[in-house]
Amino acid sequence: MIEAEGLTKYFDTFLAVDGISLNVDPGMVVAILGPNGAGKTTTVRMLTGILRPSAGWARVAGYDVVTQTAQVRATVGVLTEQHGLYERMKGLDYLDFFGRVYHLPEAMRRQRSLELMERFGLGHALDKRLGQYSKGMKQKLALVRAMLHDPLVLLLDEPTSAMDPQSAKLVRDSILELRGEKRTIVLTTHNLSEASLLADKIAIIRNGRIIAFGNFDELAQVFVGPPMMRLHLIDYVNGIADDLREVVEVTDIGADWLEYIAPQPRETNPMVLRRVMDRGGSVLTLSQVSLTLEDVYLKIVEEDEKKGENDNG
Amino acid sequence: MAEVSLKRPPMAENANLAPTYGWRMTLSNALIVTRREVRDSFRDWRIVVPIFLLTLVFPFLANLASSIFMGLFERYGDADTEGFAEAFLPLMPMLVGFFPISISLVIALETFVGEKERLSLEPLLSTPLTNTELYIGKVMAAILPPLAAGYLGITIYLTGLILGAQQWRPAPLLIVQILLLTLVQAVVMVTGAVVISSQTTSTRAANLLASFVIIPMSLLVMVESLIMIKPSARYTLWWIMLGLAIVIVLLLRTGARIFNREELLGRSIDHLNFRWAWQVFKGQWRGGVQGFRPLQWYRVSVFPALLNLRRPMLVFVVCALCSFIGGWYLSGTYQLPLEGQNLTDENVLDNMREIFDLGQNPRFVAFALSQNVRVILLAMFIGIFTFGVMGLFFTVLPFGILGLIMGNIVKAGLDPLPFIMAIIPHGVAEIPAIIIAGGAALQLGAIITRPPRETTVMEAWIRMLADAIKLFVAVILPLLIIAAILEVQLTPRVVEWVITR
């Protein structure tokens, strides 16, 4: 549904996006993560046909983002970084205007508008001027605008920013629902838990380059390494850590616990347990240390920073 | 900007689904934007109140003022009242129309840069609307309400005059003239405002720049007022309208070209990036040649730049010919006192000897050179601010003067050969230099109305500036030096030979 190869964007001499390649299948949700100014919004703008790539190419729903921009924009729904609503308009009029732009028949415009506004809890604000909407309501209406023409592809730039937890959940549920309907979604976000919840694949961008791409487990495996186990004992046994170091890499030791890396948990863990018991220790729990996307993200960005520093001498 | 090529993917299977945009579709889509914008404008009391006052209250005040003036004139004047009415009364509808249309400038700035500032432009840019549709839609939205208000104001004022105490019956052609003048002024202001808006990211900056539109327009209205009070000179207003129409075409071209998504969302629109500008200039100047390699520089940088100027140079040649023919044609009207003159007269020769010292005074080389250089540099400089038009005018004007003199010589029955020979020897070098300079002066201003695709207006202009300076240094100046030497050393001798042969 979305293919990009070597997508590059210069603003004068500033390299904003540096050869991004992406492949997103129908029904897939891809989250683009990265620090501010990493090139996320520029990438989305190129995929929408708003900005012309300086090099490389991209196709969205089969349309070229340079030569078939009108078709690309008719096929995608875009939630821009700023909601950008016309504050003097009423909610329903606003959607009617965008419905006209997308050439939706009048009945459909109204039906879709009412349906979506109800779905996002905006039913009570149909005739309110947008200037009277709260920040979260505005964000939701902007999302409704993006979904109004039932697009095959949704490009969402920080969809839940400025929303209260309940509204954010509503939006997340909608995204999951759309995924179920085989809609392709690319979202940029700083909310890592949201990304791990919604995304099938995660792309981490830094300095205009994708420095990591894959699902959470793949990223964790590649960038953080093999799983880490935490062994909790009822009472700490002297010398146990040294004993275990013969078979595993112990990374941290506490009063009654220790952590070790288990490259092959199926083989390593029984071995570790046997050693502990042989030494007369009593195991309270043995569990895998759970990694968050934040851990993975920070690790990846940190490594890229180090790599950059090394490259610069 | 890095030079990169776009590698194209194979055409999409559904590429044939591309909609074909006829003008009807374009207009229909543009009207969707216009409708929304107009409604939005009328929701803003800051726009509605002035329009209301200028449309409905100002015409009554103007009527009242007219009555008072006419009354005073009747009371104290001793000339004919009818003549005064005919001169004075048409002045007011022009002003009554102008005040509401001045609001169009405010609306244009608001709809373009205001939307950019409120960040509501990007959602619109993400829709399938084309740049042209957005541009036309917004231009119409800025023009229509103030224009309607202006016309309504004129109607109210004229109705007051026709039905009121003056019982004035203006000529239909005069009304048409006023209505058209109001229309072209509104369009000039809006198209100018669009160009300004597209190059700024804040209404504050746009408002500051708007003075470049409102001040010339106000001055123009003053000139028009002076013309209007002289009924015999009112035909000049048609020429002003024609001039404004040309300005509209140029502004529309510029606006349509720079009103695109890339420029509107560009990052460096408001501030001057001198470093970048210098890099672009340097790159264009060198044309890829590193170090001091003059021959290679001429081959890969200077001659291609000259080749790029072939169209403006062609335009220059056509204009120069027209100017020469026009000068010749005007020689029937503007006659020089050549009766009884004899170009082969010894006196002429003596005068020439005295002036040129027949090449004995090298000071004249510097004088001839500095004269040409000054005119060419002035033409290039003025061309920048006038879409190239005045640059072209200044460089083409001498050909008109030549035509005028030549026409007079021939019509006076004098031998044109000495005059022709006073041009040709140094003209061999000077005329090509002027053609190149004229083309560069035209292109230096005109480039902003049509920058090459993939290039921003600023980048295109900097590149053109680099080309113009490069051509001046590498081609025009050497040719002018040769021409100046020939003009002082050779031309007088040739003329002397022709006269004394």
The amount of helix of chain A comes to: 25-40%
Q: What is the distance, rounded to the nearest whole angstrom, between the alpha carbons of the first and last residues of chain A?
A: 41 Å
Radius of gyration of chain A: 24 Å
Enumerate the spans of chain B where pLDDT stays under 50 for 5 or more consecutive residues: 1-18
**Low-pLDDT windows of residues of chain A:** none
What does this structure look like?
- The complex is a heterodimer of chains A (313) and B (501).
- Chain A is of the alpha/beta class and 313 residues long.
- Chain A contains 11 helices and 14 strands.
- Chain A has 2 domains: 2-221, Rossmann fold; 226-288, Alpha-Beta Plaits (2-Layer Sandwich).
- Helices cover 40% and strands 26% of the residues of chain A.
- In chain A, the strands form 3 sheets. Chain A has a 6-stranded mixed β-sheet, sandwiched between helices. Chain A has a 4-stranded antiparallel β-sheet with strand order 2-1-4-5, covered by helices on one side.
- In chain A, helix 3 (91-101) crosses helix 4.
- The two termini of chain A are 41 Å apart.
- The relative contact order of chain A is 0.13.
- The model of chain A has no long low-confidence stretch (mean pLDDT 85).
- Chain B has 2 domains: 17-266, no CATH class; 275-500, no CATH class.
- In chain B, 76% of the residues lie in helices and 0% in strands.
- Chain B is built from 20 helices and no strands.
- In chain B, helix 6 (131-163) runs antiparallel to helix 7 (172-198).
- The longest helix of chain B is centred in the N-terminal third of the chain and has 33 residues, at 131-163.
- Chain B is flat, with a radius of gyration of 29 Å.
- At the A-B interface, strand 1, strand 4, strand 5, helix 2 and helix 3 of A face helix 1 and helix 5 of B.
Could you outline the blueprint of secondary structure elements for this entry?
The complex is a heterodimer of chains A (313) and B (501).
Chain A: E1 2-11, E2 14-24, E3 29-33, H1 40-48, E4 55-60, E5 63-64, H2 69-75, E6 76-79, H3 91-101, H4 106-119, H5 135-147, E7 153-157, H6 165-180, E8 184-188, H7 192-198, E9 201-206, E10 209-214, H8 216-224, E11 228-233, H9 240-244, E12 249-253, E13 257-261, H10 265-278, E14 283-288, H11 293-311
Parallel strand pairs in A: 3-8, 3-9, 6-7, 7-8
Antiparallel strand pairs in A: 1-2, 1-4, 4-5, 9-10, 11-13, 11-14, 12-13
Chain B: H1 23-42, H2 45-76, H3 81-88, H4 91-117, H5 121-125, H6 131-163, H7 172-198, H8 203-228, H9 236-258, H10 261-264, H11 274-286, H12 294-308, H13 310-330, H14 346-356, H15 363-385, H16 389-411, H17 417-421, H18 424-446, H19 457-489, H20 491-500
Helix pairs in contact in B: 1-6, 2-3, 2-4, 2-6, 4-6, 4-7, 4-8, 6-7, 7-8, 7-9, 11-19, 12-19, 13-16, 13-18, 15-16, 15-18, 15-19, 16-18, 18-19
